[in-house]
Design goal:
Blueprint (H helix, E strand, L loop, with lengths): L1 E8 L3 H21 L1 E9 L4 E7 L1 H11 L11 H7 L4 E4 L11 H10 L3 E4 L2 H18 L3 E2 L11 H7 L5 E7 L2 H13 L3 H10 L8 H4 L2 H15 L9 E2 L7 H9 L2 E10 L4 E9 L11 E8 L4 E7 L3 H20 L8
Parallel strand pairs: 1-2, 1-4, 4-5, 5-6, 8-10
Antiparallel strand pairs: 2-3, 7-9, 7-11, 9-10, 11-12
L-homoserine binds next to α7.
């Protein structure tokens, strides 16, 4: 049985979701792919807990009961711990900072420097330094995967990489923020205020640690940047996006739009020419984008020879996002070992 050893940094909503997913499905992955996904270390903002094969349920229990894994591990930081722990893949799940990309950016660069693969759900490092990260990874001969950074469980990067090999994607547009879409849908259908709907989204664990990132469009902008770099080959950072959020959208505006046959949606757009925009838009009710409700995301890829390709899925949520992280971990394990899905698993 092959092993993939993870160093998981960040035990918030997504890190917790990943532990739950592993607790539930580790045996399934063993049977299905012949790979054992082990946790060699976990870190939160206060410390690191390393061990040969940490039990994900135990990690969750310690985190919940003691507030930090430092209670059973050490009060140290991941950068120094990464030097000592034996692991294959850094799983970087710290909160997004769109100004510096930190602390995620340093974690990612350190792992690459150590010759480790990286899987991340953290948008910050890629939104501020996509090219630098990819160049460093190429030089070091390691893989960096980031399926969870745009659209949570909605398959995007891996879909394009694996399935859409034969086409060129020329443009993309979509609903890329679950929190905003949840808020707009609640305002639209139940007349809930923006503030109350946002409080609900926070309770569901889908909003950013700083929810103004969602509402003001910056989270969507991060995703546009990562998508544009990865899928359209546009070298860009968050500074290149023209961003308008939904903070000024009123219940009245939503009602008027509705009466005239439109819905208001926060749309992220990018073209191969480098136009990068986030803006609330009036979307005709006949457009599939207008039918996307709640935390769902939808991305429309405009291709050269295959027309439009639409993909949809849950854009946020701990387990949903963790499923995309795990997909990347398994893809890396496949690169290492040539995994094939076995039936029945
Ligand atoms: N806050 C983000 C959202 C999380 O609501 O879409 C997923 O990126």
């Amino acid at each position: 049985m092959r092993e993939v050893k993870l160093f998981v940094v960040g035990l918030g909503a997504v890190g917790g979701g990943l532990m739950r997913l592993l607790a539930d499905k580790r045996d399934v992955y063993k049977r299905r792919f012949g790979v054992d996904v082990k946790v060699s270390a976990v870190a939160d903002s206060k410390g690191v807990w390393a061990g040969d094969d940490l039990d994900p349920s135990e990690v969750l229990r310690v985190k919940e009961e003691k507030g930090t894994v430092a209670a059973v591990g050490e009060e140290t930081d991941p950068l120094s711990a990464m030097e000592d722990v034996d692991f294959d893949v850094l799983v970087e799940l710290t909160p997004t900072d769109i100004e510096t990309g930190e602390p995620g950016l340093s974690h990612v660069m350190k792992a690459i420097e150590l010759g480790k693969h990286v899987v991340t759900a953290n948008k910050g490092p890629l939104a501020v330094a996509y090219s630098e990260i990819m160049e460093a990874a190429e030089e070091a001969g390691v893989i960096v995967r980031y399926e969870a950074t745009a659209g949570g469980a909605m398959p995007v990067f891996n879909l394009v990489r694996e399935t859409l090999r034969s086409v060129d994607v020329l443009s993309l547009e979509g609903i890329l923020n679950g929190t905003v879409n949840y808020v707009l849908t609640r305002m639209e259908e139940e007349g809930v205020t923006l503030e109350d709907a946002l409080a609900e989204a926070r309770n569901r664990g889908i909003a950013e640690a700083d929810p103004s990132m969602d509402v003001e469009g910056w989270d969507t902008a991060c995703k546009v940047v990562i998508l544009a770099n990865s899928i359209l080959g546009v070298e860009c950072t968050i500074d290149d996006v023209d961003v308008t959020g939904i903070e000024r959208i009123t219940p009245e505006a939503i009602e008027i739009a509705e009466e005239r046959g439109y819905r208001i949606r926060l749309i992220g757009r990018a073209t191969k020419d480098g136009d990068l925009v986030v803006t609330p838009a009036l979307v005709p009710k006949s457009d599939p984008l207008s039918r996307v409700k709640g935390t769902m995301n939808l991305l429309r890829l405009g291709t050269d020879v295959a027309g439009d390709i639409l993909v949809s899925g849950r854009g946020a949520g701990p387990l949903e996002t963790a499923s995309a992280v795990m997909s990347d971990v398994l893809a890396i394990a496949e690169g290492i070992s040539g995994l094939e899905r076995r039936h029945p698993a």
